[in-house]
Give the backbone structure.
Amino acid sequence: MLVAMAMALFGVDSRGRAQNTVSPLPAQRARSLRRGINLSEWFAQVYDPRGYTQEHFQAWTTPEDIALIQKMGFDHVRLSVNPAPMFRHNRADEIPVEYLGYLDAAVKSILDHGLAVVIDIHPDSDFKQKLAHEDAFVEEFTDYWRAFAKHYSTLDPERVFFEILNEPEMQDRYRWYGVESKLAAAIREGAPRHTIIAAGARWSDNDDLIFLDPLRDSNVIYNFHFYEPHIFTHQGATWGVNYWHFVRGLSYPSNPALAATTAANIPDSVNRLPVIRYGMDHWDATRIDTEVTQVEAWAREHRVVITCNEFGVYRKAAEPGDRARWLTDVRTALERHDMGWAMWDYSGGFGVVSKANGKTVVDELTVKALGLKMP
């Protein structure tokens, strides 16, 4: 009996072979991260020329929004936080108290509504490029994370999570592994009890994640982002690849004839080709499930817990029905493989709600695609 218990503890079977066991603490806490939504453009991606102001913090996302999120059936939010407005050169551990006060109020509102929160450090690209090239800046960012984690270390570790860095944009995957390890160690110093969210390099895609070796910390959940194929999910977008803004009404599942019709509207032949290829590539529920299966295989190999905390379709140019079908297929694939998820985003360009003239309108198609309920 004692031998069997010892084998179970150390993850081996009766023949001494390793079992696919995971660390119990992150597995337990991942139950709070089953159905989430991203709160964008609140403490990050602020496009108001006045910047990060008290008026913006109080008006962009309100307690009524948080209550609506809870009523729709989400169990957590991912709160994007840009560190730049509170980052002091060579004194990064001295975080401005006034700014922290605004953020504290937001986190408190989320927790008071019974939701868990992933505090996602989400800087702009210039900040991340400095991490990619300047060791001294990595050291400063380490100081920041240690102090930031310590500030929130008294909050409930069952419902508050720390995400190291959103989409590192670091082409050198080996450098990112070293940087992420250093930042994770700093978070652990500041908040010994809390679960850390880690990701792969570049854009945190699934192939970036499965390149990664797990960190030397057992209290970690690993995440990836899923927007495949980008030509469908980002059609109409004015960032990223230039020709996306010409793509409109591209269907899902992919269809060769319909893709050819869409491609005809693109001026350059070199950019028409990816649209034609999309039509031929059999993007459907089976293809999406195959992609997610590879992530699950990596997780099983390394005995870690996985979540997908970004996926979505830009609303501007996609047909609503096609968008809903893609969301349904991704969401069901993730749930089939026992992975929690968080859609991008609440009220932005990919949103589950739209805001205009002081009114918030819930998109019923999106709610149903996520398997949730209209409030």
In short: The chain has a mean pLDDT of 94. The first helix runs from residue 2 to 9. The CA atoms of residues 347 and 353 lie 5 Å apart. The beta strands are 35-43, 76-81, 116-121, 160-163, 195-199, 220-226, 305-311, 340-343, 353-356, 359-362.
